[in-house]
Amino acid sequence: MDTRLTLNEKQSFFQILKQLHADQAKVSLLYDNNGLTRCEGMINSILTGSFQPCLLIQDGSEIAVSSVIAVNGIFAPDYSEC
After folding, report:
1. 36-78 pLDDT, tens per residue?
2. Contact call for residues 77 and 42 (beta carbons, < 8 A)
3. What distance in Å separates the CA atoms of residue 27 and residue 12, rounded to the nearest whole number?
4. What Cα–Cα distance (Å) separates residue 19 from each residue in 22, 26, 43, 73?
5. For position 39, what pLDDT does the model report?
6. Residue 63: closest CA among 46, 80, 75, 50
7. Which of 2, 18, 19, 67 could disulfide-pair with 31, CB 3.0 to 4.6 Å?
8. Phi first, then psi: what are they for 22, rounded to 5°?
9. Angle at the Cα of 9 (from 7 to 10), degrees rounded to 5?
């Protein structure tokens, strides 16, 4: 049987990502970029001054936090694809 860790009502990806950035820990992301996309690396910065917060990853990727489906194996509760 396949099981998956999901965010609970007290968690958010933004909180998790802020902590990982503060800890300078590597992240493994799954996000929606007109299809599922994977990204791994360090978070260089989190931009919060615009309409929606974005991550700047060490490889130059800019990822909207709202598009994140999973962080380090923790999935959004509404994600249902395999």
Report:
1. 999 999 999 999 887 889 999 999 999 999 999 999 999 998 8
2. no
3. 15
4. 5, 11, 11, 15
5. 96
6. 46
7. 67
8. -60, -35
9. 90
Contact 81, 11 (CB under 8 A): no
pLDDT beyond 90 at 26: yes
- Which letter, b or e, does each residue of 53-65 get, where b requires 16 or more Cβ atoms within 10 Å of its Cβ? bbbbbeeebebbb
pLDDT of res. 64: 95
**Beta 5-6 vs 74-75: how paired, if at all?**
parallel
Cβ atoms of residues 30 and 37 within 8 Å: yes
| pLDDT value of position 63 | 96
CA geometry: angle at 48 spanning 21 and 13, to 5°? 50
Region of residue 12 (phi > 0: left; psi between -120 and 50: alpha; otherwise: beta): beta
